[in-house]
Amino acid sequence: MRWKLMLASVLAVGGMAYAQDRPRGYLEPGEFDAVAVIGAAPVEGDPRYESDREIFHETRKLIGTPRYELATRDVKGSPADMLKAFSCAVGVELTPENSPKLAATVQRAIMDTAGQAGRAKDFYKRERPYVIDPGQTVCQAPEELLDRRTGKASYDYPSGHSTVGWTYATVIAGAAPDRAQAALERGRAFAESRMVCGMHNATAVQAGILTAAATMSVVQNKPEYQADLAAAREELTALRRTGTSPTSCDVEQALLAQRVMPGEVQP
To answer: How far apart are CA 187 and CA 181, in angstroms?
Structure first.
C-alpha cells in the first residue's frame, strides 16, 4: 500500500536500509487507537460524501497552476524532500545531514502516526476520489497508489501524506517554537496538496491531520520524545545561527495562502 511505501521512504535517512534498522515508535502497541478518535469516513448519503465530490471536481481547475506544481512537489516523501519542504517555515535549509536529530525524532514519531493512519485506512476502506468520480490526476500516477494485495487503488481515509506532513509540522513547531505558526501553515498546505492532486478527498485530508494531531498529543507526553525534541531543538537553534537561508520563500508563502476549498479555488 502507498502509505507503507511512503513510511519506508521517510525512514530511509543517510542510506540506512529501512528493513535492516527500522526504528520503533514512542507508543507501546495498543496504547492508542486513532480509529476511535477520527470518526467514521463519509458514506453515500452523508452530506460530507457529496461535499467531497464537489471539492474533487472544483480542485481540478488548479491543474497546471503554480499551486498544482507545489502539490506535485509535495508528493515526494523522502526525509530530504520533507525537510526541504519545511525549510522556509524554519528560515534555514534543512537536510538529513545538517539536522539528523530533528530527522530522527520525526521518523520515530511517524512510526506512531503513520501506523495509526494505515490501520484506519484498512478499517474504513473509503475509496479515493478518482475511483468514485472520473477526474484528471496528473501530479501522481494512480498506479503508484495501488494496493498490492488487491490490485486496486489503496484506501483514502485518512490521508497518509497528510498524517506525515502534520507530524513534521508538529515536531518542527516544537523544535522552533517561534516558527510554530509557519510550520503548521506549511503542514496544512502540505495536507491540502493531496486535494489539489486529486489523490485524497477533503475529509481524508482533515482526518489525516487529526490522526497526526491526536496521536502526537499522546506521544508528546512521553519522556523519550521530550528528550529527543530537546536535543533536536538545540541542534536546530545552532543551525539557524549558521545555516544557509532558503530561497523563493516569498513565492512559496503566496502559494500557501491560496485556499483550495469550493468558492475559494483560485486557478
So the answer is: 10
Give tens-digit pLDDT for 149-169: 888 889 999 999 999 999 999
* pLDDT tens digits along 186-217: 999 999 999 999 999 999 999 999 999 999 99
- Residue located via cell numbers 478527498: 201
**What whole-number distance in Å separates Cα of residue 175 and Cα of residue 55?**
34
Q: How far is CA 35 from CA 110, 113, 260, in A?
A: 16, 12, 27
Cell 489525516 sits at which residue?
208
Spatial CB neighbours of 136, under 8 Å, sequence gap ≥ 6? 60, 63, 198
d(CA 113, CA 200): 18
Give the pTM: 0.90
